[in-house]
Amino acid sequence: MRITLDGTPLLGRRTGIGTYVARVLDALPAAVRRADVDARLEVMTWSLRGGRVRGLPDGVRQVGPPVPARVLREAWARWDVPPVEALVGRTSLVHGTNFVSPPTRHAREVVTVHDLAYVHLPQTVSADAARYRTLVPRALARGAHVLVPSGATAAAVREHYALDPERVSVTPLGVDPGWSDARPPGEAWRRDHGLPEEYVLFVGTLEPRKNLARLLAAHRALRADVPGTPTLVLAGQAGSDAAAGAGADVVRTGWLEDAELRALVAGARAVLLPSLDEGFGLPVLEAFAAGRPVLAGDVPALREVGGPHATYADPYDVTALAGALQDVLDADDGDTARAARAAWAARFTWDATADATLAAYRRVLA
To answer: What sequence ranges are listed for the domain Glycosyl transferase family (predicted)?
Structure first.
């Protein structure tokens, strides 16, 4: 079988979805060998400029011409043309890794729906993401099989789109082993980035769904009551909340390379993810792998991923967030607590993600 994945999220600076695509693609060749199946893996990208993916795993090739994503999405939102075979040739299955599944002539379709923010929180998403309200139903009407990163997201997708359970497969994300070896940044690095020795950390794109306005208000409120509350650091590329984070008690690092981000997480007093909605919440597990405590928004996916090891708060309640921030700063952070967090994170591997993904492909093609 020939499997074609959308590798567009691999281009440029990688966000969470880019990490997902990269790690699944890295792990799929070994999953194919473990399953002893005859499968050829390839990636396509939708971009006129800079569309070549570097560092593909051995045996994985890139196919297809340079075509702008915006043009394709506009066409696919209205018609089932062009089919993917017109762009990449004959294939057995196409996997739309980022909400968008190309129409096909004969190939089977699989689409990853990472979350339903475009449905439940439309005011927080970009214009491109808002198009998923049209593009996802069109793929489902063609019979696309859905991959989701958590049981919570699976339940939400099945309910919203009235799908039979067998049309949705859960493929939980994994944690890179390097997170368990992360060590706090050195003094020189912190000085160069304007960071104090003690800080709490938000990791993610600066966008409304991440609930930064309430996080900032909660942090300010706690610092007013407890002046020694650590500085808040925002690590992530600017999104539609690019103006977030002005103030003497907040530091923005911008986008960081993987090694820098891991060190920053390892040195944090706590990692904060008070999102209004998440499909999974990978920063929670990455923080746990580095041994760090987490404050998370009390939403189903984060409850599922964080389990008993995170501190939760109503993401819409600033007072609750401030109280939870104090709780997580006061919580046990000894060796036993750190080891328990790391052990929880170690249950999630990219090999398991790839195995579950390949199993879904095989069910679709059976």
So the answer is: 189-332
